[in-house]
Structure formats: structure tokens, C-alpha cells
Amino acid sequence: MAKIKCKGTSLQQMVGNVYVTVAQVISLELPEVESETYESDTLDNTAAGIPYSSTGRTEGGSCSGELFYDPALDSHKNLLDLLTHPPAASEQWKIVFADSAASSWTFSGAGLSFGGTVALKDGLKGSFKIKLDGIPTFPGSGS
Length: 143
Known about the structure:
This protein is mainly beta. Helix content is 8%, strand content 45%. It is built from one helix and nine strands; from the N terminus they run ββββββαβββ. The chain has one helix at 74-84; strands at residues 10-15, 18-21, 25-29, 34-39, 52-59, 62-68, 91-96, 104-117, 125-132. The strands form two sheets. Strands 2-1-7-8-9-6-3 form a seven-stranded antiparallel β-sheet. β8 and β9 (125-132) form a beta hairpin.
């Protein structure tokens, strides 16, 4: 079983018709994709466990991360532009894993949040969260 290195992984935002790497990202929390369920218990169920069933739908979750923030960088300006000029359609994103450009997840983002941290003995940091619109495309999974 291969262990994939993280150094070299990038988050990319579609700008125009081209994916542009978001600069200086130091961590990424991948989308936590979850199959939607509902409690399917009935009054005549005498078992101790509570049964659940799938709705057949999947929640895409959110992708979040941290970066060294530089207000002069174009890729950071592109992020903040999403807050002041929200696009009419979903924003397109890609995570390219370090093992190869062929190993990536693509997804649509419905919204973005952005904040920052200023602390002694550290660089200026920004944190972001992208709410997914749908679920990511996982190469090789048939999705």
C-alpha cells in the first residue's frame, strides 16, 4: 500500500477558464463527504438498536484550510473577490495531490468563508472554508 506524500499538494481555483494554484497553503481539510440517512425506526421494533436507512443522497461537506496570507498575491485577491463579488454560478475547485497531477479531486463550491490570525512569533495566516455544491469527483471511483 502506497503512502502519498502531502508536500506538493495544491488547491486550485478556476479563474476564467484556467485552474490557478492558491499560493502559500499550509494545510487542507479534505471534504468530509457523507451519505445521508434517516432514522427508520418503527413502533413495533423491539430491538435495542435504532435502525437507519440511506436516502440515496450524499452531502458534499466543506473543504477548509490555512495559508500564509499575503494581500498582494493575486491568488489571495481571487479568494477575497468571492466574498465581495459572489459568482452567479458555483465556483470550480481542484485539489491536486502530490503524487501526480492525474490524482486529483474536483468539486464545485457554493460559498466561501475567510478569516485570519495575527500572532507573535508567527506569520500572518488566513483560514478559509469552501462549502461544496454537490460532491467531489473522485478519479477511478465511477462518480
